[in-house]
Design brief:
With 168 residues, this protein is of the alpha/beta class. It has one domain (4-167): Glycogen Phosphorylase B (Rossmann fold), CATH 3.40.50.2000. It contains seven helices and five strands; from the N terminus they run βαβαβααβαβαα. It has helices spanning 13-28, 42-47, 66-69, 76-101, 113-121, 137-143, 147-167, and strands spanning 4-8, 32-37, 51-54, 105-109, 126-129. The chain has a five-stranded parallel β-sheet with strand order 3-2-1-4-5, with helices on both faces. α4 (76-101) crosses α5 and α4 runs parallel beside α7 (147-167). It is globular, with a radius of gyration of 17 Å. The relative contact order is 0.16.
Amino acid sequence: MGKKIVFFCIPAHGHTNPTLGVVRELTGRGHQVWYYSYLAFREQIEEAGAKFIACDEYDAQQKITPRKAARVGKDLALSTRILTDTTLSLDAKVCQDMERLAPDCIVADSMAVWGKAVAFKMNIPFVSSTTTFAFNRCSAAIMKQSPWELFAMLLSMPGVNRNIRRLK
């Protein structure tokens, strides 16, 4: 009998695509896979063999202004608040689902903190999926932060710490 495995991911190709081959392999070996993600990825996830579960309505990023959305990933405090709000919004639904599904393990993208949170909260074995990209001189130059960005990050730390306490 196959295992029950639950995946959690953020709505980004670079985070989702690397997991699809793993899902395909797991389902091909007879395991049951449920995949919490976003509607934009439904087709690819279902083609890989997983049962898709939408997170869109719980995602705090979808409720922010376009101006703030442009800051996501650059503004540490805003990004942390969005991850915290999304995690707390998903918590009750995901915990109920995990009680019903009784998975053997949870695989969550390193940015999908809601997956890790529920795994630890419900004592379910946890695997982190961590993606990266190739670094070279060009990518390093693009990612370099200005002194103002570094200063803004330091100023954002009290807000980041507040959100971490909310998750605890």
